[in-house]
Specification:
Cofactor: Zn(2+)
Largest sheet: 7 strands, mixed
Subunit structure: Homodimer.
Bound molecules: zinc ion
Helix content: 10-25%
GO molecular function: 3'-tRNA processing endoribonuclease activity; identical protein binding; zinc ion binding
Family: Belongs to the RNase Z family.
Function: Zinc phosphodiesterase, which displays some tRNA 3'-processing endonuclease activity. Probably involved in tRNA maturation, by removing a 3'-trailer from precursor tRNA.
């Protein structure tokens, strides 16, 4: 699983930072989390590929959605035929429809808009799901968590051979959790040769938000938490007033959740040359790996073991 930060600015972009967008490539399937203005050019610049199956929108502020019409129209020029799903908070369908059809455009491929309530599942795939998580901003908003299912435990090949299981298809059946009968009539159960299930990966993207309890819960043991960090600690009052977080507040959420890594994003343009201070604010409150994301930065998210 690879995460590419396409846009890491706050509401107003800078020459170094584009408005919000994060691309996640999970085993070849591409997801966009938010799609600020110019996201399609960032995808070109950073070579992520265009073939996105889902766009997960946190809220309808312009810096998170104005890239959608351009991307949708460019996909048409590329003769796209596959459907595109766009997930939005409750009540946002009408606005999103207008955006999809901006300038009277009619996409030549199916564009499906799904309103999803916070605290539910936006996309239920075979081996993972994308959940929605309640956030607190100045408008209807939510974050997303990509949560993989547990993987089967490790198969102890040596032990299986000791027990007399013949090398072959019975190995596979045991690993998938089935008991098998041997030629001598003995039955071998999977628990005898397969270790405990191993956790999948967990990635949380908050979008714009105050620090909230729901994110702490959803980001429990997360492999990567991407959190709003619009302001430095000395602007805590402004963060509260505008429905954002300081880097320090983001770090406190990560620490309480026990997240492994924290990416700070949505950096206010006021820190154009001084963003390192956000990193300093955060490392004071969070022991794990922590960084201010920059446009074009890619991060691999490996399995926990
Ligand atoms: Zn924003
Ligand atoms: Zn916003």
């Amino acid at each position: 699983m690879r995460v590419t930060f396409l846009g890491t600015s706050g509401a107003v972009p800078t020459t170094q930072r584009a408005p919000s967008a994060v691309l996640v490539n999970r085993e070849g399937e591409r997801f966009l989390f938010d799609c600020g203005e110019g996201t399609q050019r960032q995808m070109m610049r950073f070579g992520t590929g265009f073939d996105v199956s889902h766009i997960f929108v946190t809220h309808l502020h312009g810096d998170h959605i104005l890239g959608i019409p351009g991307l949708i129209q460019s996909l048409d020029f590329n003769d796209r035929a596959d459907p595109l799903a766009i997930h939005v908070p409750p009540g946002a369908r009408g606005e999103m429809e207008r955006l999809v059809h901006a300038g009277g455009h009619r996409p030549g491929y199916p564009v499906r808009i799904h309103e999803v309530a916070p605290g539910s599942v936006a996309y239920d795939a075979a081996s993972f799901e994308v959940r929605t998580v309640e956030t607190e901003h100045r408008t209807r908003s939510m974050g997303y968590a990509l949560v993989e299912d547990d993987r089967p435990g490790r198969f102890d090949r040596e032990r299986a051979e000791e027990l007399g299981v013949p090398v072959g298809p019975k190995f596979g059946r045991l690993h998938e959790g089935e008991s098998v009968e041997l030629d001598d009539g003995r039955v071998i159960d999977p628990e005898q040769v397969v270790g405990p299930p191993r956790p999948g990966r967990r990635l949380v993207y908050t979008g714009d938000t105050r620090p909230v309890e729901a994110v702490v819960e959803t980001a429990a043991n997360a492999d990567l938490l991407v959190h709003d960090a619009t302001f430095a600690a000395d602007e805590a009052e402004r963060a509260r007033r505008t429905g954002h977080s300081t880097a320090r507040e983001a770090a406190e959420v990560a620490a309480r959740a026990g997240a492994k890594r924290l990416a700070l994003t949505h950096v206010s343009s006021r820190y154009a040359g001084t963003w390192e201070r956000l990193e300093r604010d955060a490392t004071a409150a969070f022991d794990g790996e922590c960084f201010v994301a920059s446009d074009g930065q890619t991060v691999d998210v490996p399995y926990p073991e």
